[in-house]
Amino acid sequence: MRSGAPADSSAVSVVNVSKAFKLPHQQYHTLKERALHPFRSSTYDVLQAVNDVSVEIAPGEFFGIVGRNGSGKSTLLKCLAGIYHTDEGQLRVRGRLSPFIELGVGFNPDLTARDNVAINAIMLGLTRRQARERFDDIIAFAELEEFLDLRLKNYSSGMTVRLAFSIAIQVDAEILLIDEVLAVGDATFQQKCFDEFHRLKGEGRTILFVTHSMGDVQRFCDRAMLLDKGRVVDIGDPASIARRYNEINFGHILPGADAPSAQSSRLSGERAADITDAWFEDGDGRRIAAVAQDVACCACMEVHCNEALEDPIFGVALRNDAGYTAFATTTAVEHGPTGRFAAGASTIVRMRFENWLTAGRYSLTASVARNGRGDDTFDLREDVASLIVHGDLSEQGVARLPHGFELERR
């Protein structure tokens, strides 16, 4: 495992940290049940959520933590935040810390937004004077000026999250713990979060960022760590960690095993071809996680051939947050024969498209199949990358087709 800066200069130091939870076989839901059945089995299972994790994070580093559900990402952040006590190991944080873990904790639903801003800001470490001085900025960022005197219980979940995030970013902390905050809110607010992350990164804040989006990891992070079943699989540059995450997610490598080289990992599979990476690009070839409406872009995949292939079919599909397919195509439809690919060769496939999508988040599914009807799939990566399209939120549907109206009176 590679490590970052030396421990004595680290902003965050995690040394052999472990955290387990006991899961009782018999659960009592009331005091009466416990009194009536005091001798019921008290056995339990042990869930090892974090297992011997070590990492050093340098001051000013934007550090990603990725892994499948249940891999220990959020548990590790809660240990750092002091929400959980560790069972073993040492944690050291140098600087004031602000957790963006469960936004909105501490809100009182019976109070107005105006009152909740004051209370929550003070809970997060601001003085009363600072809370008053930053009140207008908080409300402006959340875009809730019209709802200041509305009780929070009448807010939508998205409005509550916007308010909580707007308060949290006002805290003057050197170290930020961010857990999946970009998974909520509409596309416009998510773009504001992206811009805010750039600002925080530019100010030299140390940020630990938990996410399932490999596009976000590669856009923001300096390094990243991949966890699986509570253990560290690898620590490295965001692109390589994104590839390993996808390999684990789709069963290419044994989780927790020593990392093989990229070449040996590819050639050890039984498939004729592997999709080793997927992403979105702008017109200049830069990887992107967000784009404005009407700006053309590319959906891309990198494919490695484990054996010689003749005219394989490459496919791309875009789905919105509701799971509906906004667009799907293959090279068999739009390109024709793709040619011969030698064993061991890697190819980058780009599908350029005019961005007529409505505002929202879209996921990329990439595939490569044997020549023919396309039913014999070598590799399929569902929702492997994401793209936020920002623009006019008033439009409905999934596409903004160029159109016009004609009226013929009779």
Report on this structure.
- With 410 residues, the protein is α/β, with parallel strands linked by helices.
- The chain folds into two domains: 7-233, P-loop containing nucleotide triphosphate hydrolases (Rossmann fold, 3-Layer(aba) Sandwich), CATH 3.40.50.300; 269-390, abc- transporter (atp binding component) like domain (Coagulation Factor XIII, Chain A, domain 1).
- It is 23% helix and 33% strand.
- The protein has helices spanning 31-36, 73-80, 113-123, 128-133, 135-142, 157-168, 187-202, 214-220, 238-249, 262-267, 331-334, and strands at 12-24, 44-57, 62-66, 88-93, 97-100, 175-179, 206-210, 223-228, 231-236, 273-281, 287-288, 290-292, 297-305, 309-310, 313-320, 325-330, 340-341, 346-353, 360-369, 377-390.
- The strands form five sheets. Strands 5-6-7-3-8-9 form a six-stranded mixed β-sheet, sandwiched between helices. It has a five-stranded mixed β-sheet with strand order 12-20-19-15-16. A four-stranded antiparallel β-sheet has the order 11-10-13-18.
- Helix 3 (113-123) packs across helix 6, helix 5 (135-142) crosses helix 6 (157-168) and helix 8 packs antiparallel against helix 9.
- The longest helix has 16 residues, at 187-202.
- The chain is globular and about 70 Å long.
- Residues 1-6 and 251-269 have low confidence and may be disordered.
